[in-house]
Amino acid sequence: MADYGDVKISAELNGLFATTIVYSRFTACEGLIADLKSAIHKRRAEHPGLARSNIGGWHSDTKMREWGGDAAQFVADKALAMAKKVTGLDNGDVAELDWSLYMWANILPKGGLNKTHLHPGQIWAAVLYVDPGDVGDDVGGELILEDPRFPMTHMRLNSLRVMGADGTPQNGETRLRPNVGDLILFPAWLRHSVEQYNGARERISIAMNIDAKPQ
User: Of the four listed, 29, 92, 145, 203, which is most buried by Cβ atoms within 10 Å?
Assistant: First the structure.
């Protein structure tokens, strides 16, 4: 048998097809949060809400930019600016596109959750946490983002994990525990959910769909 003892090999891990998640936070935002809460509670008293991905709890209509006052418009403006900053356009300028954003409020009581879903027909989804509710290891209510590479979760041995560019095994989902003022932007095609919330205080968030098209 031939001797190849002098042959060496070098390798490096590279990450391809990254899924961009923008995690930001409003600071010194007590007045903003108070105004958002007030508008949401007022709307809930006036409107029965919708049934969408929510199991239990209240899901407002999607016209919060109209009934949410200056606070809602401020949040919408910031989310739109962030989306434009992290969006590219082949042979063009994203500022020349016709951007749209609609938003709604979610209130989850104890036992409520949002089942796995995505937002088709949009480019970005975003969520702002007005009140993440109670905290603790057994409280739940985490935002769950699924790995979009579906075959990875259906391999023969699910405990096997491909190494990521950071040298650690990749998981099939990421769990985020939010804080007041957190604004999270992610691709609208990314499947996500909210695990069952078991806290005593209501969990309040604002969700947004962001899209762009030629003018």
Answer: 203
CA angle 138, 144, 150 (to 5 degrees): 135
In whole angstroms, give the CA distance from residue 40 to residue 70: 13
SS3 54: strand
One digit per residue, the tens of pLDDT, for the chain of length 215 reads 899 989 999 988 888 888 999 999 999 999 999 999 999 999 999 999 999 999 999 999 999 999 999 999 999 999 999 999 999 999 999 999 999 999 999 999 999 999 999 999 999 999 999 999 998 889 999 999 998 877 666 667 777 788 888 888 888 889 999 999 999 999 999 999 999 999 999 999 999 999 999 99
Number of H helices, E strands in the chain: 3, 11
Whole-prediction pTM: 0.93
